[in-house]
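Retro notes
What went well: the complex prediction finally ran end to end.
Inputs used:
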Amino acid sequence: MVVSGADGTPRWVGLVRPAQAGDRAALDVLVREFTPLIWRTARAQGLSTPDAEDVVQTVWLIVVDDLARLRDPQSLPAWLITVTRRQARHVLRARGRETLHPSTELPDRPDRTDLAEAAAVADRDRVLWRAVHRLPERCQLLVLVVAYVDRPDYARLADALAAPHGSVGPTRRRCLDKLRALLRDDPAWSTP
Amino acid sequence: MTAPPPVDDQELAAAVRTALDRADPVPIGLDDRVRFAIDLRDAESELAGLTEAPAAAARATELTRTITFESASLTITVTLTPLGDGGHRLDGWLLPGGRLTVELRLPAERWRVTSDDTGRFSVDRVPAGRLRLAVLSVGDDQPLTRTVITPPLEL
């Protein structure tokens, strides 16, 4: 969602302070805005759908409890990613499988296999899904941030991605190029 | 048809988002459930008071602590055994007993464990830092009408 504030900063940045001050409507917008990022991050860690749902809720409860301590509104996406990864690892440990190599298989979507056109679309989705999941973890997270956060401040993501400060910008370019290369190399991409 | 991947970063990102959202959609109503969980958060909770100062068990090391918290509906006893690396083993006991969900609220994480039929639960290693326990009133067949939360412990 791209909705700008008056001065050109992304809208979500301006909602953090009101949410911290207890503005429930502002918090609700943040929940709507960032739940897809948290969901995607949890799924990228290899969580099942039900586990990912639980993690999304827990992450928000943690974040809401500690929201007052967030000094820099621009750091919200990085914080959400950090808490999500930590919580996902905890769930995976509890499930007895410490895997950070999630399945690259898509969930079954029997509801759309009956339409030829829809199947072609699904093929394309599958290729993109596969390519994203073939990226190293840090690249995956960066691609998700580019796709799911309206104008993020990449410099603030270094800690969340365990990347050296100052390296996130170049890493992001490399990751997107890597994704393009994976797509070009996938025969299913060029023959829909 | 052979379309090369989008050269523009934002276009590529938009294609990724569209594809992932179609292939593995965020469950419908999840953000509503999140908002509901935020509303419920501790609104229905009671605070358990500390009733017993740390007492060393006879055979335990001098640093092992046993602490009891009491609320109107529940007594929580925890024994914390230092592991030597800053972490602690936690053994807990709930009265009345029964299978209850205990949430460990760490500074940036929440872990859940379930007590056994006698109300006992344990965690092999709790990291150093602030810890609160919340015994949740979720699920059927459990005695709590409200979540019970302890004051913070510094480990």
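What we learned: The helical segments of chain B are 9-23, 30-40.
What to try next: split runs per interface for comparison.
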